[in-house]
Amino acid sequence: AGMKFFLQYLGCFFAFFSAGFLIISTWTDCWMVNADDSLEVSTKCRGLWWECVTNVFDGIQTCDEYDSIYAQHSVKLVLTRAMMITADILSGFGFLVLVLGLDCVKFLPDEPLIKLRICLVSGVMLLLAGLPGITGSMWYAVDVYMERSSLLLHNVFLGIQYKFGWSCWLGMAGSLGCFLSGSLLTCCMYLFRETSSGRLHSAYSLRKGYSPAVAVVTNAHLPSSQTATSKMYAVDTRV
């Protein structure tokens, strides 16, 4: 029991922070940041929804939102948005479902198997959330890296060169956390399902074995005429 609680709470811990990391990553503005340059007087960050410029000396930040979501954007931007929003929804619901499956929460306290199944559903949702999250963040990061490497390879130093920023790193961390928490929860389900099933089966067998014994003892005290009459009455009732 102690190990089951530990796995549940550890999975809940990772699920909470992973969902938070994914949501923060999706709605922050530093997926791309300009590469270090001693001549730069400002830091330029690009996110999935807007671009911000921060002055190095006074810290003043100005942000420009992108055009409408229906406007023409790059495939990288559109697909990353879709995958990160999907990861946010799945991880958020996965965490909320997990809360209901915790043993410390008074929800279906007499149904341990159902609570373990809830943990399994939560684990599957978190595993599914990690897939679009890691795909979107890794693809975005690799695309930025390849673009910068291509410019450096061809000795193109004009304009601003970007590298992936902390929002992208946060998306990767949240996705890996979803994989970890989902794995813990699914293992928790399969490790302790047989134990809980065995306990319920034993309890049911005891109740089932006890009932005939009571019937036999009860019938032993009844006269044979009453027993025969009862059987005839039962047959007539079924007919």
Give an overview of the whole structure:
The chain is elongated. It is 69% helix and 9% strand. The protein starts with a helix and ends with a helix. It has helices at 2-26, 75-101, 112-153, 166-220, 224-238; strands at residues 32-34, 42-46, 50-55, 61-65, 162-164. By secondary structure, the chain is of the alpha+beta class. It has a 5-stranded antiparallel beta sheet with strand order 4-3-2-1-5. A hairpin with a 7-residue loop joins strand 1 and strand 2. The chain has a domain at 1-28 and 75-197: Butyryl-CoA Dehydrogenase, subunit A, domain 3. It is a multi-pass membrane protein. GO terms for molecular function: structural molecule activity. Keywords: Cell junction, Cell membrane, Ion transport, Magnesium, Membrane, Tight junction, Transmembrane, Transmembrane helix, Transport.
The major pleated sheet works out as:
5 strands, antiparallel
State the name of the first-level CATH class of the domain at 1-28 and 75-197: Mainly Alpha
How are the strands of the largest sheet arranged? 4-3-2-1-5
Span from first to last CA?
Answer: 51 Å
Large-scale geometry: elongated
- The CATH architecture of the domain at 1-28 and 75-197 can be named as Up-down Bundle
Q: Helices and strands, in N-to-C order?
A: HEEEEHHEHH
**Beta-strand content estimate:** 5-15%
